[in-house]
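## Example pair
The file below holds two records. Each record gives the amino-acid sequence first, followed by its structure token line.
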Amino acid sequence: MNSSDHSAYEPAPVDHRAAVAAETARFVAALKDADLTAAVPSCPGWTLADLVKHTGSVQRWFSGLLHARIQEPPRRRDVDLRLPERQEDYPDWLADSATVAAQAFAATDPDLPMWAWGVDQHARFWARRMLFETLLHRVDAELALGRRATVDRALAVDGIDEFLVNLPFATSFAPDVAKLRGPDQTIRFDATDGEGSWLVRLRPDGFGLDANAGAAETADATVHGIAADLLLLVYGRLHHNAAAFTQDGDKDLLTHWFANSAF
């Protein structure tokens, strides 16, 4: 697949390591007095307990990869989760998972060359990826509990970029991504609350962010919305026809994109 290393818009620097801790703390706080058997509508078939287990497991697995300084795809996903027997202890376990992650970050130079499934072949890839796994599932938990979920704008902008930069390389666990091809068609995601515009180009042999596209370049289809909503859009938590967005151009192209870009 063709893919550019960077988007046309470079997001402001984010301290991914610190943000993992902050987002985990928000997640744990949201779980206070919550029924962990409650369903999570944005993750069909999952309960809050499943959501917590998944998020903490990802943090602990990625931490193990960092400690191992992996240089090739891991053959196994074995990790000592130390998962408590009682679900009511899951929130404290999730908080401890962030401590495990912080210890892995402290022991690993972010610029250390490492294998990663995405573009950035350095240890920092895993901290950035862990952040958006944690943030997204914190949002899932808050939505499941009927609360208003907010996302810091700087994190949203960075998260959109992280998702779109790495999506072309996600076919091993998201096979439908391979269907994102087209005869030089373009889709723009345009943030309406400040800087942030991403042009994705679909070609016969694949797709990727167009690093050379200017913000004024017309796309075949465009979705406009605030950055936080665009982040939830690319992750499938909001539909592109939702009232939060306005659209221009080829609606069928947008339908094709969102039918095959699930992460």
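Second record, same layout:
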Amino acid sequence: MRVLLTGASGFVGRHLHRALADRGDDVFALDLRPTPGVQTGDALDFFRHDDTRFDLAIHCAAIVGGRASIDGSPLGVATNLALDSWYMRWLVRTRTPRAVYFSSSAAYPVELQQPGDVRKLYEEDIDLDQPERPDATYGWAKLTGEKLARYAEAEGCRILVPRPFSGYGEDQDDCYPFPAFARRAREHQDPFEIWGSGDSTRDWIHVDDLVGATLALLDADVSGPVNLGWGRATSFNDLARIMCAAAGYQPTLKHRHDAPQGVHHRVSDPSRMLDHYMPTITLEEGVRRAVNV
């Protein structure tokens, strides 16, 4: 297929770029950052002015940066609204038949992710007609993007909407917790710093499985929202202990209660994904790779 891939130099984008090329797809890769094999350019300008028709479009371009960015730069994150709205307009204008819009677990209502609530999150927990408060402006941007995707679908473009939970990998920027923890473990830091109380939980999925699931869902012609995760709740305290055990030491855990930590409990029900893809890289294997990189 002829594929447009925006954000091709980013964490998910570069893994998708490699996987698509390995499949033999003809990929037009676009990113603001100069990268070998990637066209340097602004996805926003591309969506406004380009009329090229592709078989498939995958939109990964976004302003990201972990919890500090979500809490500390709400207007910057809101720029994603412009990117996503022009993406949908471009899909309709060019009559692109198939597309991917990456949403996020941040789109889920924060009221379902509070202390004492250990439920798993289902795709149906988001009602786009009567949305509840998501996680900060980043969550609102993703909710709005999903709403726009519904309109674009009504114009004839079938859109897959993956909702990744906590994606990670060995080459992820360490402004995210997983690679930051891995670096601390490799350096045998003691005490080992954890933002917040450490008992909040996340559902970790390796980037190779995130990419594998996305492509499997495309091959199965799935559209609409699909959770990407393992359905396994792991607290930050437990993640730190797994990391440090892999690094061969036992530090004191130091909790920074003044630092942002996000919602308390965020775990997926991955049943819809599991109909088409079974993840292969366990958290323990992902930790081993990250600590020994």
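Notes on the second record: Residues 74-94 form the longest helix (21 residues). The chain has a mean pLDDT of 94.
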